[in-house]
Amino acid sequence: MATTGKKTTTEARSRRNGHNRARNGSTAPQDNTGALFDALAESAQAFFSASKASSERAYRFSQAALNDAQATQRDVIALAQKWAESPLDLLGWYTAITETAVHAQHRTAEGARRLWEELADARKETQEAVQRSARANWRAGQAAFGLARGAITKSS
User: Fold this and answer.
1) Would you list the domain boundaries of the chain?
2) Which of 17, 29, 36, 142 is the most exposed place for a label (fewest CB within 10 A)?
3) Which band of pLDDT confidence, cut at 50, 70 and 90, is reported for residue 29?
């Protein structure tokens, strides 16, 4: 049996699975109290982590949108400059309009791809957070029942 820190691997695994039995078979109240608050903290941490990831994702997305807006503005200014330099050059004007439109389409397609990727990441992170929280809440419930069982046993 390998040891990790103060607990053996088997004891740590047993605690994770909600088995907080002392050697005499009774539930140890301090283990249940610790397990309850550990599980509640983990449940909250799951949602805080998901919220932080969401905030970072929103920041990345807004930065990309700002960069795209700046690029579009540069294209429009270049187009206006092209027209101001030679308003009668219809072929040059047509070429400049076409290039501006192609750049805009590329940015739009890239933005849509980026959005879909971010939405997929958000779905995955939300699913993981809900699963983590559900597992932690299950452990919290087991610990709470252990505490209640210990309180009833003491009062009897």
Assistant:
1) 48-145
2) 17
3) low
